[in-house]
Structures are given as C-alpha cells and as structure tokens.
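Dock (2R)-2-hydroxypentanedioic acid; give full complex structure.
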Amino acid sequence: MTPDLRARLTRIVGPAHLLEDPDTRASFETDWTRRFTGKAPFVVRPGSAAEVAAVLAACSSAGQPIVPQGGNTGLVGGSVPRSGEAVLSLRRLDAIEAFDTVAGEVTVGAGVTLEQLQHHVRPAGWDVGVDLASRASATIGGMVATNAGGVRVIRYGPMRHQVIGLEAVLADGSVISRLPGLLKDNSGYDLPGLIAGSEGTLAVITRVRLRLIPARPARAVALLGLPSLDAALEVVRTVRAAAPGLEAAEVFFPEGLELVLRHARISPPFPGRYPCYLLIECAGPSDPAPALAAALEPLADPAATLIATDRAGRDRLWAYRERHTEAISAEGIPHKLDVTLPAGRLAEFEASVRTALARACPSARPVLFGHAGDGNLHVNLLGIAPDDETADDVVLRLVASLGGSISAEHGIGIAKKRWLNLTRSLADIHAMQAIKRALDPAWLLNPGVIFDPDSFAPPVPRLP
Ligand code: 2HG
Ligand code: ZN
C-alpha cells in the first residue's frame, strides 16, 4: 500500500479499522471451505455507507483492487483475495433501521446477519423469506450480492425476490440509492435486481430494503427414509398437491448421513439404513401436521417416518440435513459444486454422476444433498487435491448435457468460472462483461470473479 493511500484510508476509517498485521488479517483471507485463500495487503472496515464510498474513491484513484466481504460464508472463493486485492469488510454496517411492521418491510445495513434480522422481526409477526444453515454468520449484504437461495426457495424464492430496494457504492465511490422500497417503480433499469447476484463485481452493497413474509409459527417437519430419489420426488409432488404450506423439501443420502452422525455425534434417525432421506417442512397459520401426515400415509413406511411439530423436535430432524456442510468440512477440504437440474432429470443425474465419477476419478468421494423441491443438488467431493479439477469437470459437463445450470445458488466465484460457457452462451457472457466494463472500467471490484476481462473470446463484432 502506498503511504498516500494508507494516510487517506486512516483518515476515513480511523487506524483501528485499517488492518495490516498478518495475524489480524488472517481470518479475512481464507474462506469457509479452506480451499480458497490469498494474501491481502490490508483489510479495511468502514463503519458507514459514506465511509464505504470514501474508501472506494480512495482505492479507485490508487488503482487498488478490492474484494467486498460480509460474513465470509461464501463457498466459491469469491469473498477472499487472490492476487493483491484488499478486503473491504462490511460487517460494521450492522444497524437494523426502519422496520415497517404494517407493510412488513425493513431496511438493514449490509453487515447485519440473517440471524440478527430473524430475531428482530419475528416478535412482531414477520420473518425473512430466505433461511439457510449459515444464518449466524451470513450477512444480508453478502446474501443479496450472491443471490443466496437456502431452504425455502420453493415457497418464497431466492434473495433477489426479497429485495425491494438497496443502496450500493460503485467502483469510483458514487452511490446508487433505491431505498424507498416502492413496490411499483418502473423508472428505468432495475439496478438492484442486477446488483443482486453480481457477486461483488458491479457495486458494494451498503444497505438493503427487504420485503418480509408473515411469520408462520405453526410448523411440522417430517423425515422419511425412502428407497430412491425418485420415490422422494414423488412424495414431494404429492405433499405439494395435498398438504398446505410446503416450505422445504430437502434430500440427503447415506454417505452424508454417516458423516453427520460421526462428526455431530448424534444418533441415527431410524434403526435401518435407506438409499435416500427426505425432509419436508410445512408451515401455516394453523397446525399443518394432520394434513401432512394424511398426505404421507399412502407413500411412506411408518417405520421410516418421523414427524415433529415442537421446536426442539423440528430442530433435531433438521440437524440431519443442516449439519452436512460442517460434517463434510470436518472430514476434509471438499470441492463444492452446486447444480440445478430440470425436475424430470434430477434422479437420472444423481445416478449418472456417481457412475461417471467412479469411472473418471475413483478417488473422489461424492457426498450429495440439497434442495429437492427446486432441483438443486450440492455435489461435495472429498478425497481429491484442492487444485485437481478433473472431477469438477466431469460433474459440470454432465449437468450441462442434462440441461441444468452449473450454479444454482452459491454463484460462480472463482471456483466455476472456467465452466461458465457450459451454461451461458458467448453472447450472454459478452453482455455481462460489457456491463462489468461500464460500471467498473478499471476492473477493481472483485476482479477474477465470474470471469476475467479477456476470457471467452473477444466481444461479438457490431453490425455495420
Ligand atoms: C446448504 O444447502 C448450503 O446447506 C451449503 O447451500 C451447501 O455445503 C454445501 O455444499
Ligand atoms: Zn444449499
């Protein structure tokens, strides 16, 4: 860092929030997976949107690239430095501001965690539409920047659908503000919709206005052991049609359950072992358990069915699914792939991916789980070196050949950018690169994430 930039940043955030010491920087430099890590010249922690704008203006005039970071729970290498980027931590923007309990809308700083927000709005009868296992650390700004999905997408959609306004700072320090959160507002391009899911490459989000959902305290969770993923999908179809308020439909398999039992030290749900496990949650204004039990009756084996309605019982069932990520990490450093398939091809993918991996990369140990209700499977691969991408290539090509997407909810980051053209056309990639160039001409915001400036051939020539 040049002495001039150090002096400017110190003036903006104060010396306590400009971290240069390697030990204090360390936790900002490695991501949750431990697979992605790099050195940052410094970490800067502004305490307000105005400070973020001033920091970006200073970095921009010094040509200093930056990586915006929230809770650092990303899984694709997009929130840590790679080659000389400084970390811009948004965690100090942690104020929960205007909460309209009549309209069910709230404005929050980018650094507020999902769990903080849930605790804030639930007593007033509202809830956040997106929920995910890393709720204690994941920040709202990071969740919007990556368009996080989570376990309720089948009912409420991903994070972008919850956003009704935001404030963000562009690379040169200028501020875009769409905070009034008007439900109807067709004045020009939908910049918040574009910034959501742009993985910190177009702007740094500082505040978000979210639409909330009515809290539904009456809940029932069912866990079923089933003979196959096809059987699980059949149960999901039936419950969707017959029981009200389906919020989550999650699957996992014996290889993942075995890791969860071992690392979380919990006992198995059933005495027997099943080829596929399905967790279903229904919620509504009144107890959904009777309708759920009735819908499950013709399809489920009573010896392999558990239903819980009280909080502790529901949490116990959810633990088998939610503790997969930490159990896999306790076993080793995984390659994480996060794919969607058309509903009709999900079961075919699950079978073929195991066969294809066994043939091409016998050392890879696949652990599959995910959100069966929206076709999103997480393919975690243990037993392969961090930089050996043979297995990733096998999985992602199979996904593309079945009409799926290489990223369902985690984003492209740096982990999957090599394969972007499998499920995005060159015209599409060039349009995205043109937007990136227009908003960040010096390529200073999260450079190297999603794509590089020169990747995937030159822009399509214009017609004369
Ligand atoms: C989940 O669904 C998260 O639990 C993490 O998206 C998935 O660890 C993973 O691969
Ligand atoms: Zn997920």
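Observed: The chain has a mean pLDDT of 95.
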